[in-house]
Amino acid sequence: MADLTPTPASPGVHVSKPSPYRPATASYACGCGKTRQAQGDDQARELVAAWTDHRSACSGRKESA
User: Which one is predicted more confidently, 3 or 49?
Assistant: First the structure.
């Protein structure tokens, strides 16, 4: 299987929870360059909420200086 980790070149969000007894892990990357990672079920939920908020406010493109 291909690596599903998001990057600025391939933006998105990825959440993994391999079993009910292990903590979730999550990461996101946006085309603007912002990235974030989290470990733990609550932190993964917060990351998904942050990704949703970010995507609604971001153009997905890097700012030009």
Answer: 49
